[in-house]
Amino acid sequence: MSSWDRFLDSFFNLKVAAEYLPKIIDGFWLTVLLALCIVVTGLVAGLLLAVLRSFGVRPLNWLIIFAVDLFRALPPLVLITLLYFGLPAAGFSLTGFASTWLALSLVLMAFAEEIFWAGITAVPKGQWEAARSTGLTFLQTLRMVVLPQALRMTIPPLTNRTIAITKGTALASVVAVQEILGAAQAGVSFSFNPTPLTLGALAYLVLFVPVVLLGRWIETRFAWKR
User: Fold this and answer.
1) Rounded Cα gap, residues 85 and 47, in angstroms
2) Most buried pick, 100, 132, 162, 193, via CB within 10 A?
3) Domain spans of the chain, in order of start
4) 3-state secondary structure (DSSP) of residue 26
5) Integer Cα distance of 103 and 107 in angstroms
């Protein structure tokens, strides 16, 4: 057998691929579900924290800043393992899916809060003053004048950060979640052949190439025009 034949047999073995493709597909849909949960939870929580921070309550702001800096500093893998293996010692138990969801949501929340806050503070002070002079309350000004402008400015950086975080779903394999990488690793262990990893790589391309292209379009569409 030539080197090329050995390469094909190792990474593109059709018999192994046919056997483990259904498991990779199941992992694909689990990855999609996990990514959607992380994006929705992380962005909503980040926006909520940025809005609370705009009220200017110092003790609350200090707490928000502390939490944001903490979750930005902790590596996602460390956070996942702490939640999955550490919480049972405190009497709480989370599944691998829930641990990954919570950990990556907290990381995305931290980065999203900073991005939303930067957008809010980038709105000129005159916009606040003009809105308040018309009789709008603080909340009305924030909701109808400031946030629409801030959200438009934050879309490009949020898109990049969201894509980066959702690719972290591969870390779920560490806590026995059968997403794409977990299913591929299990396939390699049972087949003694790396072809399932090739299928996993293709599945990630199928999932994330359209997401990256969509992100590029969003960045162009909502780019801040000076």
Assistant:
1) 29
2) 100
3) 17-221
4) helix
5) 6
Nearest partner of 17 among 183, 219, 221, judged by Cα: 183
How many whole angstroms separate alpha carbon 54 and alpha carbon 80? 30
Is residue 187 packed enough to be buried (19+ CB in 10 Å), middle (13-18) or exposed (0-12)?
buried
User: How many C-beta atoms surround the C-beta of residue 113 within 10 A?
Assistant: 27
Question: 55: which DSSP letter?
Answer: T
Using one digit for the tens of pLDDT, what is the confidence trace for 111-162? 999 999 998 888 888 888 888 888 888 888 888 888 888 888 888 888 888 8
Annotation: CATH topology of 17-221: MetI-like fold (1.10.3720)
pLDDT digit string, tens, across residues 64-92 = 999 999 999 999 999 999 999 888 877 78
CB 131 within 8 A of CB 141: yes
CB 107 within 8 A of CB 68: no
